[in-house]
Amino acid sequence: MEIPVIDFSKLESEERSTAMALLHQACEKWGFFMIENHGIDSNLMDNVKQLVNQHYEANMKKRFYESELPMSLEKKGNITNTDWESTFFVWHRPTSNVYEIQGLSKDLCKAVDDYIDQLIKVAENLSELMCENLGLEKSYIKEAFSGSKGPCVGTKVAIYPQCPRPDLVKGLREHTDAGGIILLLQDEQVPGLEFFKDGHWLNIPPSKNNRLFVNIGDQIEILSNGMYKSIQHRVMAEKDGNRLSIATFYNPAGEAIISPATKLVYPSHLRFQDYLNLYSKIKFAEKGPRFESAKTLTNGH
Q: pTM for the full model?
């Protein structure tokens, strides 16, 4: 089962309609996909990954293996309420705290800042493409996500360290993401990410050639009235190698109120006789406009 891959270069060509249809299908049927030719500088992406790995080796690795979790794994056996991961979180928008995080080198801070500047453009582009496929104004998601200072953007940087007993603990337990659009820069060699698809867990392969892995969060499912899905996923602990995960969340602002886009909601609280009266007049017209007309009936027009 091949994961959908959206080639952004095709969105500027005669193949645009095919690429847009693939994106719609990926959001609707899968809830996750990969994107390539997204325009982010590959050298910058490589630099971010290299600097994060260096930071882990210098500042996080020793602390992790000396923490209670590895000791608990040896003593207690199977662990169900903890994740085998070493992480830190960076806020980018509306304000950044990257230079305030203790231990991060200036080179890493600058690389992350530069990467996020480019990544946010990709996230906004994706939001506009989703809106187009949903039949919404292209700025609908961005505006819905915006508080007084715009959408909220943050990054969870995680290393899933080598685990001596991957049969006893998860790297990250099963969950869906609470937010909007998640863009993942992940390891090129070590696997572990799995998504639940058609009744079984599907292994997400490491990303080659700096492809980005994208998944849908709960707020996009709500906004799209269930048309686009957030999907349960997890990270398996691995015995061989550390897995790198740099997941950036393009989320609503804390004060943003998210609800299904009115255009995507079916008519509700409508007397069947009133619908029949409308139906008799426009029976042979398309169903979509008929539903739109039915919505106005529920509003008393």
A: 0.92
